[in-house]
């Protein structure tokens, strides 16, 4: 009796088109790993991540063809080239209904980031700073409820008193960190696609060009940094430790401002300068590129700044006042290492002098502008290498 060719045992009344049904060959034997649903074949395989997925076999119309196509997928699996299949948005939403919260997704991202060693520690620290605030505000929020309305609410909160009253740039960085987390969720199929639209940055950059501060303003700011003898004497003797600290800190901050203006150094790289980088024999101040970034998180190139008359004189004066037990130009009196920031001191001298529109970057512009105006003229390529 001639056997009738069949795709599967479709005559079985227990089979349901909407469900995944087991597949049997024409001998009635179970075809392991094969399933049928709505007339299409699927192969159930592990995608080398511990999870089972059903892969659609688009070209198979018979059981033997399905078996052959499944063997090809198994070959990819052995070569570790088999990845999770794309799922429909509806299927992915069902997969996300296990109650994952934003806090859990942030933890998964950090684990993945550490395993992949993506980025540098400074970038990680900045991301973690923003992600901790996301956890504070929306840590228990289910992942499926995340949308643009949530990011706007977060931005409003961060710019309020309760959220830290931060700048638009800080909010932009926080939202950028969240986008990295959500991209990871899409990658591992916790979400079918990102529920967040492209963020419209709040920080529009400087509205005005950085103006050139005058030499007179430079000297006034540096003078205001140092408390004179009369001002120090007004501090009661019982606070003599404060008098000594203020005298030392004020002198160090004044030295710092002059060094920025005479060397063109950036804010942070100048704070982390060492005396071993002052090359007295070759008459240069060495700036290691690892202490600065040129953009995109990449280190800046190393550079040497040739001594000019003011820079050399200032460094020699600083060397006479240096801490003999430290190699840092600006050692901290609170911990090992250099001073972390002079921002509070800058705010104080700005108020004292009334020069309110100045930042640390103005002193870098001061150096560049004076190099351009120098007599005899300095080659532009040389100035470019210095900064």
Describe the structure in brief.
45% of the residues lie in helices and 10% in strands. The chain is an alpha+beta fold. The chain folds into three domains: 21-85, no CATH class; 95-187, DNA polymerase, domain 1; 215-386, Orthogonal Bundle (hpI Integrase, Chain A), CATH 1.10.443.
Radius of gyration, CA atoms, in whole angstroms: 33 Å
Principal-axes geometry comes out as: elongated
Whole-number tally of structural domains: 3
* Helix percent band: 40-55%
Count every helix, treating DSSP H or I runs of 4 or more residues as helices.
14
**Strand share of the residues?**
5-15%
Distance between the termini: 91 Å
Q: What is the C-level CATH assignment of the largest domain?
A: Mainly Alpha
The CATH topology of the largest domain is: hpI Integrase, Chain A
Q: What is the strand arrangement across the widest sheet?
A: 1-2-3-4
The low-confidence parts are 1-11, 87-97, 238-247
Return the CATH architecture of the largest domain: Orthogonal Bundle
Oligomer: single chain
- How would a textbook summarize the main sheet? 4 strands, antiparallel
């Amino acid at each position: 009796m001639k056997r009738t060719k069949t795709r599967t045992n479709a005559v079985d009344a227990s089979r349901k088109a909407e469900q995944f049904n087991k597949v049997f060959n024409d001998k009635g034997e179970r075809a392991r790993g094969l399933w049928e649903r709505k007339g299409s074949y699927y192969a159930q395989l592990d995608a080398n991540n511990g999870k089972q997925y059903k892969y659609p076999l688009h070209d198979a119309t018979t059981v033997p063809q399905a078996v052959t196509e499944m063997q090809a997928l198994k070959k990819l699996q052995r070569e570790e080239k088999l990845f999770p299949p794309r799922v429909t948005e509806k299927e992915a939403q069902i997969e996300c209904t296990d109650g994952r919260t934003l806090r859990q997704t942030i933890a998964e991202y950090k684990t993945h980031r550490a395993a992949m060693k993506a980025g540098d520690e400074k970038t990680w620290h900045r991301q973690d700073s923003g992600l901790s605030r996301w956890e504070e505000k929306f840590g228990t929020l289910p992942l499926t409820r995340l949308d643009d309305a949530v990011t706007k609410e977060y931005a409003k909160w961060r710019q309020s008193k309760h959220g830290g009253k931060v700048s638009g740039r800080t909010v932009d960085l926080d939202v950028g960190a969240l986008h990295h987390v959500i991209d990871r969720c899409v990658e591992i199929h916790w979400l079918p696609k990102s529920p967040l639209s492209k963020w419209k940055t709040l920080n529009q950059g400087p509205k005005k060009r950085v103006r050139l501060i005058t030499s007179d303003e430079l000297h006034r700011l540096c003078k205001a940094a140092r408390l004179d003898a009369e001002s120090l004497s007004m501090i009661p003797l019982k606070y003599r430790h404060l008098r000594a600290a203020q005298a030392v800190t004020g002198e160090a901050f004044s030295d710092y401002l002059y060094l920025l203006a005479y060397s063109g150094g950036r804010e942070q790289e100048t704070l982390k300068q060492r005396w071993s980088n002052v090359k007295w024999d070759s008459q240069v101040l060495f700036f290691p590129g690892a202490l600065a970034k040129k953009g995109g998180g990449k280190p800046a190139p190393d550079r040497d700044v040739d001594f000019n008359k003011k820079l050399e004189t200032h460094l020699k004066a600083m060397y006479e006042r240096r801490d003999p037990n430290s190699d840092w130009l600006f050692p901290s009196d609170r911990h090992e290492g250099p001073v972390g920031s002079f921002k509070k001191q800058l705010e104080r001298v700005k108020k004292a002098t009334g020069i309110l529109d100045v930042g640390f970057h103005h002193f870098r512009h001061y150096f560049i502008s004076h190099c351009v105006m120098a007599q005899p003229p300095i080659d532009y390529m040389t100035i470019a290498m210095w900064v």
